[in-house]
Amino acid sequence: MILQRGSGNPHRATTLSALGAGSPTSFDQVLADATKDTTSLASLELSIGFTTGGGGEVPGLSQRDDVFLQGERNPVAAYRRLANVLGSGTMDPTADVGKFLSARRSLLDFLKEDVSTFRNRLGSEEKPKLDLYLQALRDLEGQLGDFDGDPAGALQCSNPTEPDTSADFIARVNDMPVVNRLFMDVMALSLACGVTRVASIMWGGGQSDEPVRFNDISMNNWHSVSHGNPATGPGEQMIRMHAYLSGEFVYFVEKLKSFPDADGKTVLDNSVVVWGTQCGTSTQTAYAAEDHDRHNTPIIVAGSCGGAFTTGKVIDCDNRNHNDLYLAIAHAFGLNIDSVGPESWNRGPLPGLA
Amino acid sequence: MPNAAKSRMRGLQAGACLSLLALGCEGTLTGVGGEGYEPPPTSGTAAPGDATADMPVEAPLRRLTRAQYDNTVRDLLGIDSNPAQDFGHDEEGGGFASNYRAAVEPLQVEHYQRAAEALAEQALQNLTAIAPCAPPQGTEAACLDEFLRDFGTRAYRRPLTAAETESYEQLFATGKGDSGDFASGLSLVISTMLQSPHFLYRIELGDSTAAEKDALPLTSFELASRLSYFLQNTMPDKELLVAAQANELQTPEQIAEQARRLLENPNARDTFRSFHEQWVEVTALATLEKNADTYPEFGADLRTALQDEFRAFVDYVMLEGDARLETLLTADFTFASAPLYDLYGLDAPDGATADTLTRVTLPAGQRAGLFTLASVMAVHSHPDQTSPVIRGYIISDKLLCDLPPPPPPNLEIEIPELDPNLPTRERFEQHRADPTCSACHQKMDPIGFAFEHYDAIGRYRTMDAGSQVDASSEVVGTDQDGPVQDAVEMMSRLAQASEVRSCLATHWFRYAFGRPDKLGDAGTIAAALKGFAASDYRIPELLVALTTTKGFRYRLPIKLQ
């Protein structure tokens, strides 16, 4: 498969294209738009580490109209976000939940009034900014104590356990052993509990200039190492890193599998999980020979997406762009669209998945 | 290549150009097809010095940056926990954090909510500090009234209206409930104020009663905020609010007096650091990594020392020194802590520690001011080698305001492999032979070659790959053109060039307004430049002059449709 990308700095372009697929609104957001009315959160974005690649930081994989949706980077904050929807939003066990919620509602009422007093004096270009601020406040209000069911069965949905406050920080790649499974739990719970239908996480990103030193991995700069010789030390480090990430992917997939869904299958059966990298396994002698080769990029898909896909096989994608995989997923999702991203990047839905 | 033409026409964000140019043109074209990713359109860059009048300019609604949020809660509540460190990234405008265009994201609104609730709780742990009149000192009603008047004015950066005061009284009652105390009522009030758009946004509606044709004067309170966030990166202090209350922030003289006061105050440090760190893009220093084989000495200690040095240098030049552009660009001194003596080839004095910064004179003829600080050179290098392209780009962008056109799309890049027998200059000369790249690189690379005496961690070197470093270059396109032996000579020419003075004024304009400059801004920039020249190029006077322009004191009328 080719992880197709646009022009310019290849690190940045690939980060933009991983979910963006060449469009100013990323594919996950296309799915989110289709499902947003059925869930509390339209989508959930998480990120670990910082990535640049020219033009400043890329804060996550998702974009809407060329504007990034920032990924939550703090695992405890991500949990609290979930708790906001699933429970009262207060993590203080001694709090009077009724009073807490009523205070928050009064506050939101106040702020809506506060905005309306001057909104009409704003210029036409400024009004939408305040309208979206108001909309976000309304969404917050809508989320308060929103959850009143347990679609995934007797789960932790009504009372997710907050992680230890030692994880209350902005996570970098080197923190993954401490934080990543907390993030995975938040994602899995969000899907299993029906908080959202679309979730994404960025591990590192297209130019992760951070050190990674845990387990058997020792890199001063993940990105620099990824440019190194695949046949020697750098290649060995990349293999170890990807082996570690595979374990984390498996953890997430197993987690989804552990949740029964309403139809008697598992949440994994009714989902599709896509894991990709921008480092293709090219015929080049050094990764740097073509900067993060987009060709022969491995993409792993888990889950049968409600029965649309048959799992457990390897597909030769014949140099198709990743847009075709997304198009196949869109169809499995029930979205009747002809292309994902620029039309010229599509050949048609990727065959062989069913 | 239709995309190339399109990209060029639409222009690119300054930041994006860096990557495209710095990395893009170092490589070879492979002609891989595919639609280009279209960057969002941005406005063109004005030619500074256009003979247009100083007039009101666009003033988009801005949301506080992370630094401004942290500084504001520090000054409002006395809490310096920097809660905005958890917030999402700031949107850039004209090369500086600004939040001027995109709407706030839902996740950020949740961050605001969490921060506000935590800050209110923290502030009320010391109730008498935030509300000295709290019962039993005073009655509840009188104290709430006083709190809304004093604290409310500081939080909203203008007095609350009667209707707002009444609404807050009701909110207080809700927060207090049947059984609560004064603090629980106040908690909801404070939490709400911290989530109000009047706190989070810099709302500039102007004084509609004094509207002129095509010009809407800002109110004194709005100007107090403009001055304060521009010159100290925080909320207005007491003197500014008093002056605003008396409506004494209207004439250029009144504003200049306040601007000078703010710039002489140590709190101006927040603005000077913020501007310079973003201007020369050393914000990347915090996470900078170098190749451990090539530069084993580069680690956390050196990074911290370089960060401290950069700030100390800027603090000194701008607040204690003469603050002249020439000093900023040619100073032969810096501020060293223990890890830096070796890097700069100096003998460490007895008792030097990592925490003590000492002013040192650098070895003769080796350094010239801000752009040759080791931190700046290290950031604008690759992990294992220097980058004449990036360095040339930075000088072109930051000092000459002369951005080369973006490179063609679909450009695959390849940083030249290190060669133990070939110096950087010769390795980079090769790709300039490629006609595709030479158009922009013949302009940028020679500027960058002047900095070849500084390796990828900013250490001075005389040899590169077994050869004498050749840092000779030429200043072109200015009124100070001529050959130079190295960066020191280059900076001493640039420090006198009118193009550089005008470029600095343009960057400060972008910082002040939080957006790229446009053609209509040229008159305001030119007016600021006049004040700069009159002070013999003292930078604070450039800023003072900017605050007295019509561009700063007015805004364009609000288009309701």
Descriptive notes:
The complex is a heterodimer of chains A (354) and B (561). Chain A has 354 residues and is mostly helical. Chain A is 37% helix and 8% strand. Chain A has nine helices and eight strands. Chain A has helices spanning 10-20, 27-35, 75-86, 97-119, 127-143, 176-192, 222-226, 233-258, 322-332; strands spanning 44-48, 63-64, 67-68, 199-203, 212-214, 217-219, 273-276, 299-302. In chain A, the strands form four sheets. Chain A has a two-stranded parallel sheet. A two-stranded antiparallel sheet of chain A has the order 2-3. In chain A, 52% of the residues are buried. The model of chain A is unreliable at 145-155 (pLDDT under 50). Chain B is mostly helical. Chain B contains 25 helices and 14 strands. In chain B, the strands form seven sheets. Chain B has a two-stranded antiparallel ribbon. In chain B, strands 2-5 form a two-stranded antiparallel ribbon. In chain B, β12 and β13 (482-484) form a beta hairpin. The longest helix of chain B has 21 residues, at 300-320. The chains are: A mainly alpha (354), B mainly alpha (561). Chains A and B meet through α1, β3, α3, α4 and α5 of A and α2, α4, α7, α8 and β9 of B.
Task: Quickly describe the structure.
The complex is a heterodimer of chains A (354) and B (561). Chain A is mainly alpha-helical and 354 residues long.
Helix vs. strand class of chain A: mainly alpha
Multimerization status: heterodimer
Strand composition percent of chain B = 5-15%
Helix content of chain A: 25-40%
What radius of gyration of chain A results from the CA coordinates? 21 Å
Kindly state the mean pLDDT of chain B as a whole number?
87
Radius of gyration of chain B: 26 Å
Please supply descriptive tags for the structure shown above:
heterodimer, A: about 350 residues, mainly alpha, two-stranded parallel ribbon, two-stranded antiparallel sheet, 9 helices, 8 strands, about 35% helix, B: about 550 residues, two-stranded antiparallel ribbon, 25 helices, 14 strands, about 50% helix, globular, disordered N terminus
